[in-house]
Amino acid sequence: MGSLTEENYIKTIYNLSLEPGEVSVSELAKKLSVKLPTVTSMIKKLSVKKMVSYAPYQGIKMTEKGKKEALSIIRKHRLAELFLVKILKLGWEEVHEIAEQLEHVNSDRFYNRIDELLGFPKADPHGEPIPDVNGKVVSQKSIPLSQANVGSSVKISAVTNDEKLFLDHLNSKGLQIGDQITVKKKEEFDGSVSIINKSRKETMLSHQVVEKIWVEL
Amino acid sequence: MGSLTEENYIKTIYNLSLEPGEVSVSELAKKLSVKLPTVTSMIKKLSVKKMVSYAPYQGIKMTEKGKKEALSIIRKHRLAELFLVKILKLGWEEVHEIAEQLEHVNSDRFYNRIDELLGFPKADPHGEPIPDVNGKVVSQKSIPLSQANVGSSVKISAVTNDEKLFLDHLNSKGLQIGDQITVKKKEEFDGSVSIINKSRKETMLSHQVVEKIWVEL
DNA sequence: AATAAATGTTAGATTAATCTAACATTTTAA
DNA sequence: TTAAAATGTTAGATTAATCTAACATTTATT
User: Fold this and answer.
1) What is the average pLDDT value for chain A, to the nearest integer?
2) What is the distance between the alpha carbons of residues A47 and A141, in angstroms, rounded to a whole number?
């Protein structure tokens, strides 16, 4: 983990990288309210630390290592925002500033408990997705399989449980992340769902299971 | 508000000042894990800012301004610890480190909500008293008047409510902080308490009132 | 294509917080 | 009561993050 300043650069670079086009030194300087040479020198430092890849006059690109770090900070920021709104009953407009401070708290225990207290939420109060402990982000357009319409064909984008037992269960049903599946039938009385998997076989998934499988339309 | 480093110096100086004897440069250096000259130079800086008073080779003394700042940080630290234990269910042994980070969060709204969420607690998980918003500390040996024994003579050490209405009420009963009073009778059915005030007059105080008056034995 | 505008880099200074080495004062104790 | 030990200060160096001024490269525009 780097300094507070480094964390702010990494988070900002990551956010800019999601927008179309290269991440430029001037964009970064503007976002961080510093002058251009300040950015150049910090980028060199982050480059030595392998958080970004950089060659003079070319744009700034994040490495996998940098992305991982960025997602960890963003996770903390968004969990903090949701916590401030849901638990401390602060307004969603006023929480950003406080979350900017809380995102630098270094304690996995702290953030995992907040995650738990909030029921492992998928999005912050602004609807932005919250990366999980491993930096996995459930796309904003994803929904739990339990909410997919009968007849729709969807792609498994994520599972919100990493337990071996759960993953083994999915394997035994012939399911994997990335698979395209079709929703055949939804049982009202117990919330179970019948689907057709990649191998065109029909299987039944319980309510507990379809709640934990997230899909993209 | 000063830098994070300044806040740590101020908090540490305050804590050392509660122990008997002068606060020395070497004590501070040891507590903060820095060398002596580092302390000397920071003390000079804090002295310019009127947080401490200092003359070379004499000890370090806190000013009122410094104490106020220290109590604000300590309040945040202790609220954070209690929050971590009570709400996030972390162990009391592990919360100190996280609280060291949270105490630097700059947001009154944040801490006042936590205070509220915890029910305006008087002590942290270690039994250390939590200063209120105004830096007032209820001594560890204080108890609410509602818990004092009949026949005991006690001194009013604090009131946990600053509303004019409440303070006017106390005035009308001839009560002030610092007054020595005697508990005459406690009514079981409504929690009211009869006391004898400084002027040897007997008065009845309701449950709501005796809950908010803290006394020392 | 030549040049002006925009963008990026280098060099060197500044500030906060730290350090080491050398010196000064105060306290302890022989 | 003076020498040794402990404690504190000053001077000057270092590192992180920032700045301004000067220079370099890239992009846009006539």
Assistant:
1) 89
2) 33
**Identical fold between B4-62 and B75-137:** yes
pLDDT exceeds cutoff 90 at B11: yes
Listed in sequence order, the residues at least 6 apart from A125 whose beta carbon sits closer than 8 Å to its beta carbon are A81, A82, A85, A86, A92, A95
**A119-138 confidence digits (pLDDT tens):** 898 877 766 789 999 998 87
Specify which residue's alpha carbon is closest to the C1' of nucleotide D7: B26
Question: Are B107 and A114 a contacting pair at CB < 8 A?
Answer: no
Give the CA-to-C1' distance from A72 to C10 in angstroms. Answer: 34
From A111, which residue of chain B is nearest by alpha-carbon distance? B88
What residue of B is the nearest CA neighbor of A117? B88
Contact A109 B102 (CB under 8 A): no
Domain topology for A143-216: SH3 type barrels. (2.30.30)
Query: Which tokens hold the place of B206?
Result: 């309701």
CATH number, domain A4-62, options 1.20.120.530, 1.10.150.390, 3.40.50.720, 1.10.10.10: 1.10.10.10
As assigned by CATH, the class of the B75-137 domain is mainly alpha
Question: What is the amino acid identity at position B9?
Answer: Y
Residue B98 has its nearest CB partner, among A88, A104, A107, at: A107
Question: Given this model, what pLDDT does residue A173 score?
Answer: 86
